[in-house]
Amino acid sequence: MEKQITERKDLSFETLFWTFMVGSFAGFCVEVVIMFLRKGYLIIHQGLIYGPFIPIYGGGAVIMIIIFHYIKDKRPLTVFLLSTIFGGIIEYFCSYFQEIIFGSISWNYSKIPFNFDGRTSIYNAALLGIFGLVFIKHFYPWICKKIRPFVNETPRKVYNTITWVLVVFMSFNIIISSAAVYRQDERRRHIEATNSAQKFLDNHYSDTMLKQIYNNARPVNK
């Protein structure tokens, strides 16, 4: 059977999953570079317990891929404005849900002019708009062109095996990371461990460990 990447629809599960993986890793790299430029030394920000991934970037990349199909032929200004709007909305609600669910925040833009509850700002949204414009008009078409030979030459079974192994790993990673941080918030609220899952999380994912991994997260009062 001829294995052509063009046969694998752009919105297929595997395409969106690999976009999530690449976006999560790229976001980790971006955070490292930004913090180095700001502080002058290396600071590692992770979004998950295991591996160099920040899923908010991966999720944003997936949304951009979906939007890509509808605006890829639009004028650059239209792409920029739509990316700015969607980027700002995503950043705002990610901050909101992190606070509500996990009792912490990882960024606060209260000191930046034209911010929205400190969760995002016009400045940050515009930066996301620029990123979206570059991603949709240049980076995504380029990366598709580069990976096409690799995908075409990889046996389908090997490709599927690698994909599903990573799906299982990332699913576990997201679940255990979310559970560990949620349990950390329970400890802050002095909720005792009453079941085996809570005890497991207390024993294996201590506050000290999580503070090292999520060194930019700050607890908030609900």
Describe this structure in words.
By secondary structure, this protein is mostly helical. The protein has a domain of about 150 residues. The chain has 7 helices and 4 strands; from the N terminus they run αααβββααααβ. It has a two-stranded antiparallel ribbon. It has a two-stranded antiparallel ribbon with strand order 2-3. Helix 1 crosses helix 2, helix 2 packs antiparallel against helix 3 and helix 3 crosses helix 4. It is globular, with a radius of gyration of 19 Å. The termini are far apart.
What are the main properties of this structure?
about 220 residues; mainly alpha; two-stranded antiparallel sheet; two-stranded antiparallel ribbon; 4 strands; about 70% helix; globular; disordered N terminus
- The shape is globular
Number of helices: 7
Span of the ends, CA to CA? 56 Å
Q: What is the spatial order of strands in the main beta sheet?
A: 1-4
Largest sheet: 2 strands, antiparallel
Question: What's the average pLDDT?
Answer: 86
Q: Give the tally of β-strands.
A: 4
Low-confidence stretches: 1-8
Rg, alpha carbons:
19 Å
Order of helices and strands: HHHEEEHHHHE
Kindly name the structural category.
mainly alpha
The fraction of residues in strands falls at under 5%
Summarize the amount of helix as a percent range.
55-70%
